[in-house]
Amino acid sequence: RILILDFGSQYSHLIVRRCREIGVYAELMRCDTNIDDIRNFSAKGIILSGGPYSVYEEEAPHCVPAFWQYVDQTHMPLLGICYGLQEMTYALKGKVSASAKREYGHAELMMKELNAEERKLDNQANHSPAVNGVPTAPRDSEPDPNQVHDNPTAVSPNVHRLFQGLVHNPTRVWMSHGDKVTQLAPGFQAIAVTPSSEYACVAHLEKQMFGLQFHPEVTHTDEGTQLIRNFILKICGAVPSWNMKNFAHTEMERLRRQIGERHVLGALSGGVDSTVAAALLHKAIGHKFHGVLIDTGLLRMHEGPEVIQRLKQHIPGLQVDCIDATQEFFDALKGVTDPEKKRKIIGGLFIECFEKATKELHLPVEGGFLLQGTLYPDVIESISFKGPSATIKTHHNVGGLPAKMKLQVLEPLRELFKDEVRALGMELGIDRSSVWRHPFPGPGLAIRILGEITRERADILRQADDIFLDEIRKSGDYDKIGQAFVVLLPDVKSVGVMGDSRTYEMACCIRAVATSDFMTADWYHMPYDVLARCSSRIINEVTGINRVCYDISSKPPATIEWE
Ligand code: XMP
């Protein structure tokens, strides 16, 4: 396990992703997490993220003072990235200065050769006492310094093992920083430089502490993943055993222990998260799991019956019922336009519906669990240190449940990213068509009907949305898109001509994004002919809409949903 301490960088979650892609479980915690929680995590190594601050600022975030003693006592390997390097330098008595101009963009990183003595020092450090009592993995064999290199840009075997396996020297890295280190902390030395930074990569060879002025976690750093791989596998000695097969096995065991003889009610939407969570629970506890789909009146066209049928087909033996609560939802949302209020009302009503379902299904009202498909990005948004990756919407499932709720929340996917959930779904044998469905938010069409929600507006949006999805499925674009939907715009009515008469109707906006993790997204470059067919069909077939726009905003700075 690798721990990442978050100083508020917009890239922090990418570090977690890179570690997991390499096969090592990693988690993000606030930079000021107390030392007991850090110790209990039993990391093999710790990465300090970047952040938007200056270390000397009054508001600047820092690790707790006991952190540095802990690192020292346990010989914990450490990698500081950008602000993380500056924090390390500051804490260990080096100097950081504000630079007059911000360095932003590509730079060429030139790795230095280590001399024999430095290599020996480094090698000894790797045979240091076991980290937290866990022996480190054996290191690779020593590089052969006599190896001949024909290619002048190839990486010499004498560079630090943080760089081994890299293909080019210099290699392209991505810089994004204002301040920089001007005096190294005692014991540190530069092991790579760029034309504008003599401390682009620094190391304390004995203590296995490293600092990078650039960001290895972003794809703009050509060989960044290899660098992170070297840190976590070669230097920390972590073993790459994180995969969905192991996860499914241990999580099912854990669920069985936690649930015992009690029951679990699952809130199912037909989306990939709740479907995978339901399959996991069904496999773990069988008939003690019961799924319900609440028809809020804010689902997609024909969604209720279709989802029930699909779930029964894809998860054989699953118990699942549909509850019609459309009137309750439209009544409660009458006159409400504020998106956060909509989410709260919907969240509250969902819980009431589940409590009602518990009674109708004759399940015990207390002592049971409620399954939610919360994912790691939701958790990150709720725990992140203040800064650019701080909470943007109070959406998702984390922390939004009313206190009166009598069911305990169960979130078996809360450690996973979306692509990991899909891999888990495939591992559990769920059909591709369920696993690769576009996600659909819990509040459904409510956050896509901007302004007031009425049954009539929901029907209009549902029809437009259905046409849009139909067209992108037919054109073959659906599988290339991460998420696609239509948004009904509020208070915008525009003039049109239909037949011989003028119309004065609503406008809608179609949105399609390409993304793998839903934390960042590009607007999808939809072929013009597909756009043309969507627009023409929506305007012709949906009474109430006479204008269609296409959203060309990426995330960030926009979000995927409009509300
Ligand atoms: P944003 O709009 O934050 O969306 O870029 C990222 C992903 O989250 C979904 N989303 C929600 N899911 N409840 C949910 O269950 C919500 O309130 C909510 N808001 C956004 C969104 O559809 C996208 O997949």
Account of the protein in words:
There is one protein chain. The chain folds into 3 domains: 2-235, Class I glutamine amidotransferase (GATase) domain (Rossmann fold); 244-435, 3-Layer(aba) Sandwich (Rossmann fold), CATH 3.40.50; 449-550, GMP Synthetase, Chain A, domain 3. The chain has 16 helices and 18 strands. It has helices at 12-22, 35-41, 65-74, 83-91, 116-126, 224-235, 244-259, 272-285, 303-314, 326-333, 339-360, 376-383, 418-427, 432-435, 455-475, 528-541; strands at 2-6, 26-30, 45-48, 78-81, 95-111, 171-183, 189-194, 197-204, 209-212, 264-267, 289-295, 320-324, 369-371, 408-410, 483-498, 501-514, 522-523, 545-550. A 9-stranded mixed beta sheet has the order 2-1-3-4-9-8-7-5-6, sandwiched between helices. It has a 5-stranded parallel beta sheet with strand order 12-11-10-13-14, sandwiched between helices. It is globular, with a radius of gyration of 27 Å. It starts with a strand and ends in a 13-residue tail after the last strand.
